[in-house]
Amino acid sequence: ALGRARGETRADVGRVAANTTIDRDKVARADEQSLLCATAIAALDRSLAGAGILVGSALATLELNQRYYQRILERGPTAAEPSLFPPTSPNLIPGQVAIFFGLTGPSAALTSGPGHATDPLELACLLVGAGVCDRIVVAAYDVVGPISSLLRERCYPECSDLETGAVAALVSCDPADGAAVDRDEVAALRAGFGHLGLLRALRVLLPNG
User: Fold this and answer.
1) Sheet strands (E) in the chain
2) Contacts for 158 with CB less than 8 Å, ≥ 6 apart
3) 18 with 46: CB under 8 angstroms?
4) pLDDT of residue 106
5) Going by C-beta distance under 8 Å and a sequence separation of 6 or more, which residues neighbour residue 65?
6) What band does 53 get if pLDDT is binned at 50, 70 and 90?
7) Is 57 helix (H, G, I), strand (E, B) or coil?
8) Is the pTM of this model over 0.70?
9) Which of 111, 179, 183, 169 shows the shortest CA–CA distance to 142?
10) Predicted confidence (pLDDT) at residue 191 exceeds the cutoff of 70
11) Which of 49, 98, 171, 180 could pair with 102 in a Cys bridge, judged by C-beta atoms 3.0 to 4.6 Å apart?
């Protein structure tokens, strides 16, 4: 079953804190990418403890990488900010949101190009269908800025509508959790780029929200 999908265009520290047991101050210290994903996941408005987490992105951590290394280039290696280094790895994002929401199931980060926005959703259907776990949160995010915009313009001009934001949904083995969906149905929707591509696919699969 596929539960309702939620898309967000900005991070909301208050919403994340209200839907977790994490203090607001600690939530606020998380990186922008994790907060975007966490905001979309919090909007699902349900208990997710014990579920898995799969996070996709078209742009990965390009913008944060640029900010981190620009500081080093300008001020030297001794000016490197230790707290900014971990978020330069896409693997941090599923780990951070897993801590927020108590997601103890399978965890992975996926980075896909055009036409593969539904990869996290397809993998979640495969894992749940195989009995690896009962529930998996599927999320995708993109942070758009100067560097990622340059890459998009030069390499993916057909994806000019991509913007900063995130989307999340829940894949579950319990029919009561949402609409019935299978991997083949998801695979047939392999189109789009980034979180917007996944959001469009989810709207096709969940026309009523």
Assistant:
1) 6-8, 52-57, 107-111, 135-142, 165-172
2) 114, 193
3) no
4) 95
5) 88, 147
6) very high
7) strand
8) yes
9) 111
10) no
11) 49
